[in-house]
Design a protein that fits this description.
CATH architecture of one domain in chain B: 2-Layer Sandwich
Structural class of chain B: alpha+beta
Number of helices of chain A: 19
Number of strands of chain A: 20
Radius of gyration of chain A: 22 Å
CATH superfamily of one domain in chain B: Probable tRNA modification gtpase trme, domain 1
Largest sheet of chain A: 8 strands, mixed
Number of strands of chain B: 19
Largest interface: A-B, 16 and 19 residues
Order of helices and strands of chain B: HEEHEEHEEEHEEHEEEHEHHEEEEEE
Shape of chain B: globular
Oligomer: heterodimer
CATH superfamily of one domain in chain A: FAD/NAD(P)-binding domain
Distance between the termini of chain B: 36 Å
Strand content of chain B: 25-35%
Structural class of chain A: alpha/beta
CATH topology of one domain in chain B: Gyrase A, domain 2
Largest sheet of chain B: 6 strands, mixed
Helix content of chain B: 10-25%
Strand order of the largest sheet of chain B: 10-11-12-9-3-13
Shape of chain A: globular
């Protein structure tokens, strides 16, 4: 195979691995430099107490895009790296709701709501599908469009008009920029059902159900559902990264862990390599950053190599995380009234109604953590017993809202917030506190430090409409190439954003190869 | 200095009591939030004070910013198009700065104040842009517009007047030099700079010493030694065109105020290519300017003189009498000292070349009746007014 050139990828998160594999297959000599001791970044498994392992950051995923699975040769394990799960919205009185991709059931749920749910999911998945042309391509520039951009927009237009049809398109345009609170009130009566869907729309974002464009974030989430139901990965999320790292290495990618990059070397306005924290310099024809935009431009490149307004735009992106991650090592399985063991293995939500979710967010607006947080709970050791010692269990909890900038600072508050979450879980699972052998909490501040993500934000920056599509992360760097020649973005900071999708990595590789080919 | 009372729309400079007393006609204009004299008595007497004796202009409203900190030089390098790494302490240089697209935001001067950092002077408020440009730099930017009072003393006798006023140390002061001196026990910083294209100085003092400075200078006149006259914005406008200085906002749209995509201007289009240095490290707009520089220039702001005795105010320019329209006049004057019509004009270049001929269609009024006349124009590569005394060191005494 002829060599196309050499590439350095900063960060062995899943998007970096996907991008690397594509480039290696196209003939690039690719080297990934990872600061941590393991690959995966936010998609890695961590041992937080002896014998207890858990997905460190992301703990559930949708199946990867089939095109990526096929092109990278990820195989059956890559297509479905774990157990498909439903979502169960917990109820204090034991009247839990089970939400599948197309149906919902539970005590006290009306037939009308059950039917409305199926219709709602069908309709909204169609909207998500209509946005697909935008997803798998670079977001089109509105000025100086190239042919790819024109084609993307044409496909989008076609899908909206003829894919959806007149009535659905009109409805999509009506609700697309709206808030999920109003939309759900139009569809449903049941408070539990609305609470669960609203939580899905805002979790990971600095948004409440009433925040404008929370429909869009919900659609971004539904995009994953196009490929199948959510999956609890066997062996933790790190296994997904290991699968990707495996194909990358087979394609010839060199992966170096514990090699933190100090800076991106810019010579005559062109990225020519990197310098590691160890002082070692590595040259390459192109440098691809899987880090977020602020880390990439403001720290690794440095503002003195950038135009002032571009740097300012990057600086002003909203990147403050809102979710804390908690891990519990448990003596035995928690008991929740009305839930079987199999049901405990699903994705459990504490989001009893929309007011609850909105109220939880209100605290975050004012620099406080939620008094009654929204919880997303998994017990992965039920599906994969290797994650905990025999008979014991691990629980992984995403707790919203826990804003990065806490008024009183996280130093003093971390324990209090963890206690609050424990007490809340105990409301549903009596005796929970006594089952805990060890616990760990990662606030957004900890996530920032451990996973090297500015603000500890899940998605490398809010996925509000102002930071999406051709404005992700900012205009001027929204098509994976950047103002610095030879420097590219391939991570969640780039379109279409966060989640374990591999799509930014795929799109970045596609863009790099197209530019190389002069297209 | 006392804080500005918010109920007053315009603030008054510390020189205001004296300026107000000398103002015969009370014609004021706002400039950067200050009440500034347009004219004191007659335009002619003020103009000739600059060109033939000694003029005093209150330039306190000029935006002034102090830049200090370990990264001050890195910050300025990134801000302006010019290589300022060689600017020595006690020296001043002219600079422009651009936005990301290489379009000019403003022009100004940088004073190297030695251990006290740098002072950037600009006609318009630039604090916002300076703070934006400071991201990632260990630098402190303080606006000191209201903390520094300044007078511009210009004209052939300015050196003699200042010396007679008791200000020492000007004899060896070369153009763009700075000297720190004393007057009656208070500090005065003097720079040999100005906006008139003539011999002249700018004096910078604490606002509390402002009136004492004014009185010392005008005391020279009271003692019957030299004539000294205050001048307003209108006389300054005449001499700056003679000197070939441009005014952002009048001669071109600044990038910050331009709404339409093609209304802002690059340094090359303004004839300021000489302050753009591509050999220095990155500065905001460099990438865009490199791209622009590789293409033929589209238009130029030029110094234009027109024949006849009618200044070409607001005129269109053509490539021949009754020809194709190729430009417009931005600002124009009748120059009494050069006996000529002078203008700043924007002219379209074709394939990077200036037009062979330029004609102005000039409308003018005679006893309220409109007339039109065509006059041939000529582009001047050099300032219209640039007397040897401007740069002579030591300056000629009178």
């Amino acid at each position: 195979m002829t060599r196309s050139g050499s590439a350095i990828i900063i960060g062995a998160g899943h998007n970096g691995l996907v991008c690397a594999t594509y480039l290696a297959k196209a003939g690039y000599a690719v080297q990934i430099l990872e600061a941590r001791e393991v690959v995966g970044g936010g998609a890695s498994t961590r041992e937080f107490a002896e014998g207890f392992r858990v997905s460190g950051l992301a703990h559930v995923l949708h199946p990867l895009n089939p095109k990526i699975v096929k092109e990278l040769g990820l195989g059956a394990k890559g297509a479905k790296p774990g157990t498909a799960i439903d979502t169960i919205s917990l109820d204090r009185d034991g009247r839990h709701l089970t939400l599948s991709t197309d149906s919902v059931s539970g005590a006290g749920l009306s037939d009308a709501d059950a039917q409305a749910y199926s219709a709602f999911k069908r309709e909204f998945r169609r909207y998500a599908k209509a946005l697909e042309p935008m997803t798998m391509n670079k977001p089109p520039r509105l000025k100086d469009m190239d042919n790819t951009d024109k084609l993307t927009l044409a496909k989008l237009g076609w899908k909206l008009r003829f894919g959806l049809g007149k009535i659905s398109m009109r409805e999509f345009l009506r609700v697309g920029g709206s808030n999920i609170y109003d939309v759900l009130n139009e569809f449903f009566e049941d408070q539990r059902l609305k609470g669960a869907i609203a939580a899905d729309a805002v979790i990971g974002h600095h948004m409440g159900p009433r925040t404008p464009t929370s429909v869009l974030t919900y659609l971004q989430r539904l995009r994953g559902e196009l490929y199948g139901a959510e999956i609890l990965p066997s062996g933790g999320m790190g296994e997904v990264a290991n699968i990707l790292a495996g194909v990358a290495e087979r394609a010839g990618v060199k992966i170096r862990t514990e090699a933190p990059v100090q800076r991106i070397v810019v010579t005559d306005h062109k990225a020519t390599g990197v310098q590691l924290q160890s002082g070692e310099s590595i040259e390459a024809d192109i440098v691809i950053s899987n880090a977020d935009a602020k880390a990439t431009f403001l720290h690794l490149v440095g503002t003195e190599y950038l135009d002032a307004m571009f740097a300012h735009r990057v600086h002003k992106t909203r990147t403050e995380g809102t979710v804390a991650k908690l891990h519990f090592a448990l003596k035995d399985l928690p008991r929740i009234e009305g839930l079987s063991e199999a049901q405990l293995g699903q994705r459990l939500l504490v989001a009893p109604d929309m007011r609850y979710v909105e109220h939880a967010f209100n605290h975050a607006k004012y620099g406080r953590y939620s008094d009654a947080p929204v919880l997303e709970i998994t017990i992965p050791s039920l599906a994969d017993t290797s994650l905990a010692p025999a008979g014991q269990h691990v629980m992984s909890v995403s707790a919203s809202f826990a804003p990065y900038s806490l008024k009183e600072g996280w130093d003093k508050s971390t324990g209090d917030f963890a206690d609050k979450v424990v007490a809340l879980i105990a409301d549903y699972a009596p005796g929970f506190a006594a089952q805990i052998i060890a616990r760990e909490i990662l606030t957004p501040v900890d996530i920032e430090r451990e996973y090297k993500v500015t603000g500890g934000h899940w998605h490398h920056g809010e996925m509000s409409i102002g930071q999406s599509f051709m404005m992700r992360p900012v205009h001027g760097a929204a098509q994976y190439d950047t103002p610095i020649e030879g420097l590219f973005l391939c991570g969640a900071a780039a379109h279409p954003g966060g989640g374990i999708t591999g799509i930014p990595g795929h799109n970045a590789a596609k863009r790099i190869l197209a530019m190389k080919a002069g297209r | 200095m006392e804080k500005h009372d918010f109920r007053e729309v315009l603030q008054r400079s510390p020189f205001f009591p004296r300026a107000d007393a000398l103002s015969q006609v009370k014609v004021w204009s706002p400039w950067n939030g200050y009440q500034t004299a347009r004219i004191y008595d007659t335009l002619a007497s003020e103009y000739f004070a600059i060109r033939s004796s000694c003029s005093v202009f209150d330039m306190t409203p000029m935006g002034k910013y102090r830049i200090t900190g370990p990264d001050a030089i890195r910050f300025l390098t990134r801000l302006v198009t010019r290589d300022i790494s060689k600017l020595k302490p006690g020296r001043v240089t002219y600079v422009v700065w651009c936005n990301d697209e290489g379009q000019v935001l403003d022009d100004g001067t940088i004073f190297h104040l030695g251990d006290d950092g740098y002072r950037l002077c600009a006609q318009h408020n630039q604090l916002d842009w300076l703070l934006i440009s400071a991201l990632g730099m260990d630098v402190t930017i303080e606006e000191e517009t209201h903390e520094v009072a300044a007078l511009s003393v210009q004209g052939p006798t300015s050196y003699s007047v200042l010396e007679a006023a008791g200000i020492d140390g000007l004899q060896e002061l070369k153009p763009f030099d700075i000297v720190n001196t004393f007057l009656d026990g208070f500090d005065v910083m003097v720079s040999r700079t100005g906006f008139t294209g003539d011999l002249g100085y700018e004096l910078w003092v604490d606002p509390n010493d402002a009136l004492a400075l004014w009185d010392a200078i005008f005391g020279v006149k009271a003692r019957g030694l030299y004539d000294v006259r205050p001048i307003g914005l209108e006389a300054l406008e005449m001499v700056r065109i003679e000197a070939g200085f441009i005014v952002p906002g009048d001669d071109f749209n600044t990038a910050e105020t331009a709404v339409r995509a093609d209304r802002s201007r690059s340094p090359f289009e303004l004839g300021l290519g000489w302050v753009v240095n591509f050999d220095k490290p990155y500065f905001t707009g460099k990438r865009a300017l490199l791209e622009e520089h590789a293409r033929p220039i589209k238009r130029r702001l030029v110094k234009l003189s027109t024949e006849g005795n009618k200044p070409p105010h607001d005129s269109f320019l053509y490539d021949g009498k009754n020809g194709q329209r190729i430009g417009t006049i931005k600002t124009a004057i009748w120059s009494p000292i050069l006996k000529s019509n002078l203008a700043m004009a924007e002219v379209e270049y074709i394939k990077g070349k200036r037009p062979a001929e330029i004609w102005a269609q000039i409308y003018y009024q005679k006893e309220l009746e409109w007339k039109v006349v065509w006059e041939r124009c000529e582009i001047s590569g050099k300032p219209f007014w640039n007397p040897p005394r401007r740069n002579a060191t030591p300056p000629e005494p009178f």
